[in-house]
Amino acid sequence: YMCLASLIHYNDRFACGIDTVGISNFVTFLENTSEYRRDLRRLKYGDERDPKMRQTLLEMSPLTRASEITAPLFVVQGANDPRVPLSEARQIYEMAKKSNNNEREGVWWMMARNEGHGFRKKPNVDAYQEAMVRFFDRYLLDFSAVGR
Question: What does 99-133 look like in DSSP terms, one character per residue?
Answer without folding.
Answer: GGGS--TTEEEEEETT-BSB--SHHHHHHHHHHHH
